[in-house]
Amino acid sequence: MAQRYYIVGNWKMNGMRTALPEARAIDRAAQRLPKVEVAVAPPVTLIAAMREAVENIGIGAQTCHSAEKGAHTGDLSAAMLRESGVEFVIVGHSERRADHGETDAMVKARAEAVQAAGMGVIVCVGESEAQRDAGEAEQVVARQLAASLPGSADRLSVAYEPVWAIGTGRVPSIEDIAAMHKRLRSALAQAYGEAGAAVRILYGGSVNGNNAADLLSVAEVGGALVGGASLTADAFVPILAAAA
Ligand code: PEP
Q1: Which helix (H) or strand (E) covers residue 145, if one does?
Q2: Which residues does the annotation place in the binding site for substrate?
Q3: Which CATH number goes with the domain that contains 131?
Q4: Where, by residue number, is the active site (predicted)?
């Protein structure tokens, strides 16, 4: 069966309403590329406006709290995000882990809350540069994954994002990506049995229009999580085209 790549833009803390024309341009490109599943996770402030502006791309959030409601100032529950118009949530991004002290246990609880609210979830994992240099990348990431995964594989994707490759212009070798994705695939089989085979494993970290085709051709790479190069249609659409 032909693979349908899942290409997700993570806008992080970028984008005012003036960015909506970029979302519309990405949406028009996605309409021309039905073989690619395209999604964008804008800042929460843009979710409602983006919902109005696009028809062909999924809309997601970049994190959520695991509780349904309560005294958690500034946080949003999965149900609130769903009501605001998103279909999926990214959890455990390394910037959340670093900036907000999100642990594997918190990531797992958040992922389960997202699934319970009926949405897709993308669980992010990845090693630091020191861990890669020490030859520990695969063990570290497999451990992180096992502790971060929700109990069910329902609507689950995993994003392998080496921390040192995010926003740096550096990417691991094709061989290292292939080895890591193979390891993650077997970890998913261990966690979920046969259901693990349906979980998409995305690569993330300095993906752009020049390297996307090579990265997507690696075995077990089912798509990409894209930061900087997802902010404009000029940068993002060539990645979508490489996935078509
Ligand atoms: C990310 O932060 O998820 C990411 C992959 O960023 P970039 O593409 O900018 O490296």
Answers
A1: helix 137-148
A2: 10-12, 167, 206, 227-228
A3: 3.20.20.70
A4: 93 (electrophile), 161 (proton acceptor)
Determine whether the shortest distance from the Cβ of 207 to ligand 1 is under 6 A. yes
Ligand 1, atom 7: nearest CA belongs to which residue? 227
What's the gap in Å between 183 CA and the centre of ligand 1? 21
**Which of 13, 90, 97, 166 for a ligand 1 pocket mutation test, highest count of atoms within 8 Å of Cβ?**
166
Q: 57 phi and psi, to 5 degrees?
A: -125, 150
Cα–Cα distance measured from residue 85 to residue 79, given in angstroms and rounded to the nearest whole number = 10
In a domain, 239, yes or no: no
Domain count, the chain: 1
Residue 233 falls within a domain, yes or no?
no
pLDDT tens digits, residue range 159-217? 999 999 999 999 999 999 999 999 999 999 999 999 999 999 999 999 999 999 999 99
234 lies in some domain: no
Tokens, residue 189: 């089989």
Q: Is the CB of 167 under 6 A from ligand 1?
A: yes
For residue 72, the CA-to-ligand 1 centroid distance in Å is 28
Residue 1 lies in a domain: no
Domain housing 88: 6-225
